[in-house]
Each structure stands twice: as C-alpha cells, then as structure tokens.
Fold this sequence. Notes:
Elements: E1 6-11, E2 16-24, E3 29-33, H1 47-50, E4 55-59, H2 76-90, E5 95-100, H3 102-113, E6 118-124, H4 137-144, E7 152-153, H5 154-161, H6 173-180, E8 183-186, E9 189-192, H7 196-208, H8 211-214, E10 222-228, H9 234-253, E11 258-263, H10 269-272, H11 274-284
Parallel strand pairs: 3-4, 3-5, 5-6, 6-10, 10-11
Antiparallel strand pairs: 1-2, 2-4, 7-9, 8-9
Helix pairs in contact: 2-3, 4-7
Amino acid sequence: xxxxxxxxxxxxxxxxxxxxxxxxxxxxxxxxxxxxxxxxxxxxxxxxxxxxxxxxxxxxxxxxxxxxxxxxxxxxxxxxxxxxxxxxxxxxxxxxxxxxxxxxxxxxxxxxxxxxxxxxxxxxxxxxxxxxxxxxxxxxxxxxxxxxxxxxxxxxxxxxxxxxxxxxxxxxxxxxxxxxxxxxxxxxxxxxxxxxxxxxxxxxxxxxxxxxxxxxxxxxxxxxxxxxxxxxxxxxxxxxxxxxxxxxxxxxxxxxxxxxxxxxxxxxxxxxxxxxxxxxxxxxxxxxx
Length: 289
C-alpha cells in the first residue's frame, strides 16, 4: 500500500520534536495514536482505508517511533499536553481520535480534559481497563515489565516474529518493516527504542489511570473496540477478565457509548484486522460531535 512521507514538528513551549505521518484524505480530521512501545506505523494497513471519510494523521508519541526521547514526562499530563500542542501547531481543531492500546487511554484522557478539541474517540483494545481494581502495583509491575532485547540479529528476530501466533499467516515484507520500526537497528542488530525505565513510567501511568472516573466526563461520541480470543493460559485469562470488567465500566459510566467485540482477534487489531477495524471507524464517522 502507498505510504506517506513522514514529517517533523517542533512543539512551541514543549521543548520536543514529534514525528507524524500525514495520510491525507477528505473529511473530518482523524488523529491515530499507537500503543506502548509501538509507533505510528502500526496504522499502515488501516490508514489508507480511512482516507475515504477522514483526513488522517498518525502521530509518534514522545519516546516512540522517530519522535524525541526525553528523559522524563511519560505520564498522561505531559503526553496529553504534547498532543494538544501538536494539534495547535498543525492547525487541527475538533479532531476525532482513534487510539490503540495505551493510545486509547490517551484518547480517553484527552476527551475528558479537552472536550472542546475532541469530536469523538475510538478506543482500540485500550482505554477501558482499570488494572488497579485487580492488583497492587508490585504485582502488576512484574506482569507489565517487557523483556530486554540485547542486540538480537535482525534475521534472528524476524525469524521469531514470523512465528508469532495469529501473525504467521499474515506475514509480508511490509509487516516485517512495521515490526522492525518499533526498534532501533544498529550494526544489523535489534535493540529497544524505548528503554525499560521509560517503558515502565508509562506502564505505571496506565496502572494509575481510572477509566471509571474519566468516562463520565466525556461529552463526545465513544466507540470501544475490544479484541477477544479464547484464553489458553493463566495470563491470557487474567487479561480476558480485565477486559470484561472494562466493558462493564464503559456500560455503567457511559451507557450511550458503542461497544464492538471483535472475536478471534489479538491485541494488535490494526495488524490482524485492518479492514474490519477501518470499517468500524468509517462507520463511526456519522456519530462525530
């Protein structure tokens, strides 16, 4: 699929430069946000389809993709301030926001705190889980810490990636490029782009987030898309339960919100189900405030 050239912008007053991909298109502005330790390229298979009804921009949040990696500022206060400054800098007003995973929680917080700038939000397998309802931080921290990647050769890494469940049958050269874009490549080896310390700052912010408190403050239309698979182990069952609880949080806090359960779908919905995801977001177009 065609891919846009990336662009950079220095945010006035923020001391940070962000990278974004402007896909063009006609219609209301749609900002795409990625998840933790991901980047704007996770939307590469979905964004071209969204151009039918939106003008589409995919942003690399701080510490991710090709955006700057500051030492601190990975809580929602700073991340959301970055997004607001970005919208102002590029001249976007009343945007729809679709966020995957962590990006879904960013979208939710933006809608709650900046209602005049957000026309609607789509939370894609994110934004609804309240981990603190189930676990203390010490336990959650152990569950959320990522593996280190100490210089695995690119071909070795791709060999493992090609065998990921639900992905092996979808593998293409483009998907391989999307996967590698999450990492730093040096001397033919793969390293984490976002180090574990900064990763865990975001993980703690996610743990501390309270969708049950944010959702009642949202005044724009909401679509929550929840990926669902049959659990095969204790860890998968735990996250399955978290999501079910999150769905109930949405139903109780914001009864008018739309909830779409995507069965037999992994967390990386934009990779596995780009056509179905795009169709849902295109259908959301007419609900925008």
